[in-house]
Design a protein that fits this description.
By secondary structure, the chain is of the alpha/beta class. Helix content is 37%, strand content 13%.
Length: 378
Protein backbone atom coordinates (compact mmCIF):
# COMPACT_ATOMS: atom_id res chain seq x y z
CA UNK A 1 0.00 0.00 0.00
CA UNK A 2 1.17 3.54 -0.74
CA UNK A 3 2.30 5.71 2.16
CA UNK A 4 1.83 9.40 1.42
CA UNK A 5 2.67 11.75 4.29
CA UNK A 6 0.65 14.95 4.71
CA UNK A 7 3.79 16.95 4.14
CA UNK A 8 7.39 16.50 3.05
CA UNK A 9 9.89 19.35 2.66
CA UNK A 10 11.65 19.44 -0.71
CA UNK A 11 15.32 19.00 0.20
CA UNK A 12 18.04 18.46 -2.41
CA UNK A 13 21.86 18.27 -2.37
CA UNK A 14 21.87 22.06 -2.70
CA UNK A 15 20.29 22.46 0.75
CA UNK A 16 22.51 19.77 2.23
CA UNK A 17 25.73 21.27 0.82
CA UNK A 18 24.92 24.76 2.07
CA UNK A 19 24.08 23.44 5.54
CA UNK A 20 27.36 21.48 5.64
CA UNK A 21 29.20 24.65 4.61
CA UNK A 22 27.51 26.59 7.43
CA UNK A 23 28.47 23.91 9.95
CA UNK A 24 32.05 23.61 8.71
CA UNK A 25 32.53 27.38 8.95
CA UNK A 26 32.29 26.99 12.73
CA UNK A 27 30.12 30.10 13.07
CA UNK A 28 26.78 28.27 13.42
CA UNK A 29 24.59 31.06 14.83
CA UNK A 30 23.36 34.24 13.06
CA UNK A 31 26.18 35.33 10.75
CA UNK A 32 27.04 35.66 7.05
CA UNK A 33 24.47 33.12 5.82
CA UNK A 34 21.69 34.81 7.76
CA UNK A 35 22.65 38.25 6.44
CA UNK A 36 22.74 36.85 2.90
CA UNK A 37 19.36 35.13 3.34
CA UNK A 38 17.81 38.36 4.65
CA UNK A 39 19.22 40.35 1.73
CA UNK A 40 18.10 37.83 -0.88
CA UNK A 41 14.63 37.57 0.68
CA UNK A 42 14.38 41.38 0.68
CA UNK A 43 15.49 41.57 -2.96
CA UNK A 44 13.00 38.86 -3.94
CA UNK A 45 10.09 40.50 -2.10
CA UNK A 46 10.71 44.08 -3.19
CA UNK A 47 11.97 43.40 -6.72
CA UNK A 48 9.02 45.11 -8.36
CA UNK A 49 8.89 48.08 -5.96
CA UNK A 50 10.55 51.41 -6.49
CA UNK A 51 10.69 52.12 -2.74
CA UNK A 52 13.32 50.65 -0.42
CA UNK A 53 12.07 47.69 1.61
CA UNK A 54 13.52 45.81 4.59
CA UNK A 55 13.57 42.16 5.66
CA UNK A 56 14.29 41.02 9.21
CA UNK A 57 14.90 37.34 9.87
CA UNK A 58 14.06 35.61 13.13
CA UNK A 59 13.46 32.12 14.46
CA UNK A 60 9.70 31.78 13.75
CA UNK A 61 6.67 33.58 12.38
CA UNK A 62 5.39 33.77 15.95
CA UNK A 63 8.54 35.73 16.85
CA UNK A 64 8.12 37.93 13.75
CA UNK A 65 4.53 38.77 14.76
CA UNK A 66 5.66 39.54 18.32
CA UNK A 67 8.46 41.81 17.08
CA UNK A 68 6.06 43.51 14.66
CA UNK A 69 3.46 44.25 17.36
CA UNK A 70 6.20 45.64 19.60
CA UNK A 71 7.50 47.80 16.74
CA UNK A 72 4.11 49.46 16.22
CA UNK A 73 3.80 50.00 19.99
CA UNK A 74 0.98 47.64 21.04
CA UNK A 75 0.09 48.18 24.70
CA UNK A 76 -1.78 46.43 27.48
CA UNK A 77 -5.55 46.99 27.13
CA UNK A 78 -5.39 47.43 23.32
CA UNK A 79 -7.48 45.25 21.00
CA UNK A 80 -6.33 43.45 17.86
CA UNK A 81 -8.68 41.97 15.26
CA UNK A 82 -7.67 38.50 14.04
CA UNK A 83 -9.64 35.80 12.19
CA UNK A 84 -10.84 32.93 14.36
CA UNK A 85 -9.77 30.47 11.66
CA UNK A 86 -6.03 30.59 12.28
CA UNK A 87 -3.22 28.85 14.06
CA UNK A 88 -3.15 29.90 17.68
CA UNK A 89 0.10 31.88 17.23
CA UNK A 90 -1.79 34.77 15.57
CA UNK A 91 -3.94 35.33 18.67
CA UNK A 92 -1.29 34.29 21.19
CA UNK A 93 1.18 37.06 20.28
CA UNK A 94 -1.49 39.66 21.07
CA UNK A 95 -1.82 38.28 24.60
CA UNK A 96 1.94 38.73 25.22
CA UNK A 97 1.20 42.47 25.58
CA UNK A 98 -1.83 42.10 27.83
CA UNK A 99 -3.88 43.09 24.76
CA UNK A 100 -7.05 41.29 23.62
CA UNK A 101 -7.46 39.25 20.43
CA UNK A 102 -10.88 40.18 19.00
CA UNK A 103 -12.03 37.40 16.69
CA UNK A 104 -13.55 37.91 13.26
CA UNK A 105 -15.65 35.31 11.45
CA UNK A 106 -14.59 34.10 8.00
CA UNK A 107 -15.88 33.73 4.44
CA UNK A 108 -17.18 30.31 3.46
CA UNK A 109 -15.43 30.26 0.08
CA UNK A 110 -11.91 31.43 0.94
CA UNK A 111 -11.78 30.73 4.71
CA UNK A 112 -10.25 34.22 5.04
CA UNK A 113 -11.50 36.89 7.44
CA UNK A 114 -14.85 38.33 6.33
CA UNK A 115 -14.08 42.00 5.78
CA UNK A 116 -17.78 42.92 5.97
CA UNK A 117 -17.68 41.93 9.66
CA UNK A 118 -14.59 43.92 10.68
CA UNK A 119 -16.14 47.35 11.33
CA UNK A 120 -18.62 45.94 13.87
CA UNK A 121 -15.66 44.71 15.94
CA UNK A 122 -13.85 48.04 16.11
CA UNK A 123 -13.87 49.92 19.43
CA UNK A 124 -11.87 52.82 20.85
CA UNK A 125 -9.28 50.26 21.98
CA UNK A 126 -8.68 48.70 18.55
CA UNK A 127 -5.15 49.25 17.32
CA UNK A 128 -4.31 46.58 14.75
CA UNK A 129 -5.87 44.23 12.20
CA UNK A 130 -3.97 41.00 11.53
CA UNK A 131 -5.28 39.43 8.31
CA UNK A 132 -4.17 35.81 7.81
CA UNK A 133 -3.79 34.76 4.17
CA UNK A 134 -5.34 31.35 4.71
CA UNK A 135 -3.68 28.51 2.81
CA UNK A 136 -1.81 31.14 0.77
CA UNK A 137 -4.81 32.98 -0.71
CA UNK A 138 -4.48 36.71 0.03
CA UNK A 139 -7.28 38.40 2.02
CA UNK A 140 -9.29 41.34 0.63
CA UNK A 141 -6.44 43.76 1.25
CA UNK A 142 -7.94 46.85 -0.42
CA UNK A 143 -10.96 46.69 1.87
CA UNK A 144 -8.80 45.97 4.94
CA UNK A 145 -6.47 48.91 4.18
CA UNK A 146 -9.47 51.17 3.67
CA UNK A 147 -10.93 50.26 7.07
CA UNK A 148 -7.49 50.63 8.69
CA UNK A 149 -7.12 54.11 7.23
CA UNK A 150 -10.62 55.17 8.31
CA UNK A 151 -10.04 54.10 11.95
CA UNK A 152 -6.29 54.80 12.09
CA UNK A 153 -5.28 51.15 12.63
CA UNK A 154 -2.11 49.25 11.78
CA UNK A 155 -2.19 46.27 9.41
CA UNK A 156 0.21 43.47 10.25
CA UNK A 157 -0.18 40.58 7.84
CA UNK A 158 0.19 36.99 8.99
CA UNK A 159 1.67 35.57 5.78
CA UNK A 160 2.79 32.29 7.36
CA UNK A 161 1.15 30.53 4.38
CA UNK A 162 1.65 33.12 1.66
CA UNK A 163 5.05 32.68 0.07
CA UNK A 164 4.83 33.32 -2.81
CA UNK A 165 1.34 34.81 -3.19
CA UNK A 166 0.04 37.85 -5.02
CA UNK A 167 -2.85 40.25 -4.46
CA UNK A 168 -3.75 42.17 -7.62
CA UNK A 169 -0.20 41.70 -9.00
CA UNK A 170 1.41 42.81 -5.72
CA UNK A 171 3.66 40.34 -3.94
CA UNK A 172 2.55 39.57 -0.39
CA UNK A 173 5.11 41.26 1.83
CA UNK A 174 4.72 44.66 0.18
CA UNK A 175 1.20 45.70 1.30
CA UNK A 176 0.58 46.13 5.06
CA UNK A 177 2.70 47.97 7.65
CA UNK A 178 4.62 44.76 8.41
CA UNK A 179 4.25 41.24 6.94
CA UNK A 180 5.34 38.10 8.77
CA UNK A 181 6.34 34.81 7.09
CA UNK A 182 6.92 31.32 8.51
CA UNK A 183 9.62 28.86 7.47
CA UNK A 184 8.37 26.06 9.72
CA UNK A 185 8.97 22.51 8.45
CA UNK A 186 5.63 22.23 6.63
CA UNK A 187 5.74 25.66 4.99
CA UNK A 188 6.32 26.51 1.33
CA UNK A 189 9.90 27.58 2.11
CA UNK A 190 11.27 25.56 4.96
CA UNK A 191 14.26 26.11 7.23
CA UNK A 192 12.96 23.68 9.88
CA UNK A 193 12.03 26.62 12.10
CA UNK A 194 12.29 30.24 11.00
CA UNK A 195 10.51 33.46 10.17
CA UNK A 196 10.89 36.81 8.39
CA UNK A 197 9.27 40.22 8.73
CA UNK A 198 9.16 42.61 5.77
CA UNK A 199 8.32 46.32 5.82
CA UNK A 200 8.89 49.61 4.01
CA UNK A 201 9.37 51.35 7.37
CA UNK A 202 13.04 51.74 8.32
CA UNK A 203 12.24 52.49 11.98
CA UNK A 204 10.21 49.28 12.36
CA UNK A 205 13.00 47.29 10.69
CA UNK A 206 15.59 48.78 13.06
CA UNK A 207 13.46 48.05 16.13
CA UNK A 208 12.77 44.48 15.05
CA UNK A 209 16.47 43.86 14.36
CA UNK A 210 17.39 45.23 17.75
CA UNK A 211 14.68 43.39 19.67
CA UNK A 212 15.30 40.02 18.04
CA UNK A 213 18.55 39.98 20.05
CA UNK A 214 17.77 41.22 23.58
CA UNK A 215 17.43 44.88 22.54
CA UNK A 216 21.18 45.01 21.97
CA UNK A 217 22.29 47.90 19.80
CA UNK A 218 24.29 45.61 17.46
CA UNK A 219 23.88 42.01 16.28
CA UNK A 220 26.27 39.32 17.56
CA UNK A 221 27.60 39.17 14.03
CA UNK A 222 28.83 42.78 14.34
CA UNK A 223 30.42 42.19 17.73
CA UNK A 224 32.34 39.01 17.11
CA UNK A 225 33.95 39.60 13.72
CA UNK A 226 37.59 40.66 13.58
CA UNK A 227 36.47 44.20 12.73
CA UNK A 228 33.93 44.29 15.57
CA UNK A 229 34.29 45.32 19.18
CA UNK A 230 33.13 43.76 22.45
CA UNK A 231 31.16 46.88 23.38
CA UNK A 232 27.38 47.00 23.04
CA UNK A 233 24.46 48.70 24.72
CA UNK A 234 20.98 47.39 25.54
CA UNK A 235 18.61 50.05 24.26
CA UNK A 236 15.26 48.23 24.47
CA UNK A 237 13.56 45.36 26.33
CA UNK A 238 14.02 42.67 23.66
CA UNK A 239 13.86 38.92 23.12
CA UNK A 240 16.08 36.02 21.98
CA UNK A 241 14.55 35.55 18.54
CA UNK A 242 17.51 35.42 16.15
CA UNK A 243 17.84 32.54 13.71
CA UNK A 244 21.02 30.57 12.92
CA UNK A 245 23.28 30.24 9.89
CA UNK A 246 22.37 26.53 9.70
CA UNK A 247 18.68 27.41 9.24
CA UNK A 248 19.51 30.31 6.92
CA UNK A 249 21.61 27.99 4.70
CA UNK A 250 18.45 25.95 4.13
CA UNK A 251 16.57 29.18 3.41
CA UNK A 252 19.10 30.32 0.80
CA UNK A 253 18.78 27.07 -1.13
CA UNK A 254 14.98 27.00 -0.81
CA UNK A 255 14.52 30.61 -1.90
CA UNK A 256 16.07 29.83 -5.29
CA UNK A 257 13.32 27.32 -6.03
CA UNK A 258 10.40 29.06 -4.38
CA UNK A 259 8.69 29.90 -7.71
CA UNK A 260 9.33 26.45 -9.15
CA UNK A 261 7.89 24.80 -6.02
CA UNK A 262 4.78 26.99 -6.31
CA UNK A 263 4.36 25.91 -9.93
CA UNK A 264 4.52 22.25 -8.88
CA UNK A 265 1.86 22.81 -6.20
CA UNK A 266 -0.25 24.74 -8.69
CA UNK A 267 -0.19 21.76 -11.08
CA UNK A 268 -1.30 19.44 -8.29
CA UNK A 269 -4.07 21.84 -7.23
CA UNK A 270 -5.36 22.05 -10.81
CA UNK A 271 -5.46 18.25 -11.03
CA UNK A 272 -7.33 17.96 -7.74
CA UNK A 273 -9.82 20.69 -8.62
CA UNK A 274 -10.69 19.31 -12.05
CA UNK A 275 -11.30 15.88 -10.48
CA UNK A 276 -13.48 17.23 -7.64
CA UNK A 277 -15.70 19.70 -9.50
CA UNK A 278 -19.24 18.38 -9.72
CA UNK A 279 -18.67 15.69 -7.04
CA UNK A 280 -19.47 15.51 -3.31
CA UNK A 281 -16.15 17.19 -2.66
CA UNK A 282 -16.08 21.00 -2.58
CA UNK A 283 -12.67 22.19 -3.84
CA UNK A 284 -11.10 25.47 -2.65
CA UNK A 285 -12.10 28.67 -4.48
CA UNK A 286 -9.49 31.26 -5.41
CA UNK A 287 -10.61 34.79 -6.26
CA UNK A 288 -9.71 35.82 -9.81
CA UNK A 289 -7.51 38.81 -8.86
CA UNK A 290 -5.09 36.86 -6.67
CA UNK A 291 -2.51 34.14 -6.81
CA UNK A 292 -2.12 31.61 -4.00
CA UNK A 293 1.08 29.90 -2.89
CA UNK A 294 -1.03 26.73 -2.45
CA UNK A 295 0.45 26.09 0.97
CA UNK A 296 -2.79 24.25 1.70
CA UNK A 297 -5.38 22.51 -0.47
CA UNK A 298 -8.51 22.34 1.70
CA UNK A 299 -11.61 20.46 0.56
CA UNK A 300 -15.00 20.48 2.25
CA UNK A 301 -17.01 17.25 2.67
CA UNK A 302 -19.96 16.14 4.80
CA UNK A 303 -18.09 13.25 6.43
CA UNK A 304 -14.79 14.91 7.31
CA UNK A 305 -13.90 12.74 10.34
CA UNK A 306 -14.78 9.51 8.55
CA UNK A 307 -12.86 10.57 5.43
CA UNK A 308 -9.82 11.43 7.55
CA UNK A 309 -9.87 7.89 9.07
CA UNK A 310 -10.46 6.15 5.72
CA UNK A 311 -7.61 8.01 4.05
CA UNK A 312 -5.37 7.18 7.00
CA UNK A 313 -6.20 3.49 6.53
CA UNK A 314 -5.25 3.91 2.85
CA UNK A 315 -1.86 5.40 3.81
CA UNK A 316 -2.75 9.01 3.03
CA UNK A 317 -1.88 11.69 5.61
CA UNK A 318 -4.30 14.62 5.86
CA UNK A 319 -4.90 17.38 8.40
CA UNK A 320 -7.42 19.98 9.57
CA UNK A 321 -6.76 23.74 9.37
CA UNK A 322 -7.75 25.07 11.82
CA UNK A 323 -9.51 24.40 15.10
CA UNK A 324 -10.91 27.94 15.45
CA UNK A 325 -9.38 30.07 18.20
CA UNK A 326 -12.76 30.53 19.94
CA UNK A 327 -13.01 26.76 20.52
CA UNK A 328 -9.73 26.38 22.42
CA UNK A 329 -10.48 26.02 26.17
CA UNK A 330 -7.91 28.57 27.38
CA UNK A 331 -9.10 31.26 24.96
CA UNK A 332 -12.79 30.49 25.47
CA UNK A 333 -12.38 30.79 29.24
CA UNK A 334 -10.13 33.85 29.26
CA UNK A 335 -11.87 35.98 26.61
CA UNK A 336 -15.42 34.56 26.87
CA UNK A 337 -15.79 34.03 23.13
CA UNK A 338 -19.25 32.77 22.16
CA UNK A 339 -19.45 29.87 19.71
CA UNK A 340 -22.55 31.34 18.06
CA UNK A 341 -20.66 34.49 17.05
CA UNK A 342 -18.70 32.51 14.45
CA UNK A 343 -21.25 30.50 12.42
CA UNK A 344 -19.21 30.35 9.19
CA UNK A 345 -15.97 29.34 10.91
CA UNK A 346 -17.89 26.62 12.78
CA UNK A 347 -19.40 25.29 9.55
CA UNK A 348 -16.05 25.38 7.72
CA UNK A 349 -14.28 23.69 10.63
CA UNK A 350 -16.75 20.75 10.61
CA UNK A 351 -16.29 20.11 6.88
CA UNK A 352 -12.64 20.91 6.11
CA UNK A 353 -9.85 18.49 5.31
CA UNK A 354 -6.41 19.47 4.01
CA UNK A 355 -4.95 17.13 1.39
CA UNK A 356 -1.22 16.58 0.70
CA UNK A 357 0.22 19.20 -1.68
CA UNK A 358 4.01 19.47 -2.09
CA UNK A 359 6.51 19.36 -4.96
CA UNK A 360 7.66 15.75 -4.55
CA UNK A 361 4.13 14.29 -4.93
CA UNK A 362 4.12 12.55 -8.31
CA UNK A 363 1.23 11.94 -10.72
CA UNK A 364 0.67 8.44 -9.34
CA UNK A 365 0.37 9.80 -5.80
CA UNK A 366 -2.07 12.51 -6.87
CA UNK A 367 -4.20 10.00 -8.85
CA UNK A 368 -4.23 7.66 -5.86
CA UNK A 369 -5.32 10.45 -3.50
CA UNK A 370 -8.07 11.60 -5.90
CA UNK A 371 -9.32 8.04 -6.32
CA UNK A 372 -9.50 7.38 -2.57
CA UNK A 373 -11.05 10.77 -1.74
CA UNK A 374 -13.80 10.24 -4.33
CA UNK A 375 -14.34 6.69 -3.09
CA UNK A 376 -15.00 7.71 0.54
CA UNK A 377 -16.29 11.30 0.40
CA UNK A 378 -19.94 11.86 1.29
C1 LIG B 1 -1.45 31.15 10.14
C2 LIG B 1 -0.20 30.90 10.95
N1 LIG B 1 0.34 31.91 11.64
C3 LIG B 1 1.46 31.75 12.36
C4 LIG B 1 2.07 30.53 12.44
C5 LIG B 1 3.28 30.38 13.30
O1 LIG B 1 4.42 30.08 12.55
P1 LIG B 1 5.74 29.59 13.26
O2 LIG B 1 5.60 28.14 13.56
O3 LIG B 1 6.83 29.87 12.25
O4 LIG B 1 5.91 30.41 14.49
C6 LIG B 1 1.56 29.44 11.73
C7 LIG B 1 2.22 28.13 11.82
O5 LIG B 1 1.76 27.12 11.44
C8 LIG B 1 0.38 29.62 10.97
O6 LIG B 1 -0.18 28.61 10.31
Amino acid sequence: MKQIPFHKAYITDEEINLVVEAIKSGWLTMGPKTIEFEEKFRDYTFKEENKKGYAVSCNSCTAALHLALKAIGLKSGDEVIVPTNTFIATAEVVTYFGAKPVLCDIEEDTHNMDVSKIENLITKKTKVIIPVHFGGQPCDMDEILKIAKKYNLYVIEDAAHALPSKYKEKIIGTIGDITCFSFYATKTLSTGEGGMATTFNEEYAKMMKCNRLHGISRDAWDRYTIKGSWYYEVIDNGFKYNTTDINSALGLAQLKKVEWMRKKRDEIAKKYTSAFIGTKVTPPKIKSDRETSWHLYVIKVNNRDELYEKLKEEGIGTSVHFIPVHKHPYYKKTYRYKNEDYPVANYVYEKSLSLPIYPSLDDDDVDYIIDRVLKYAK
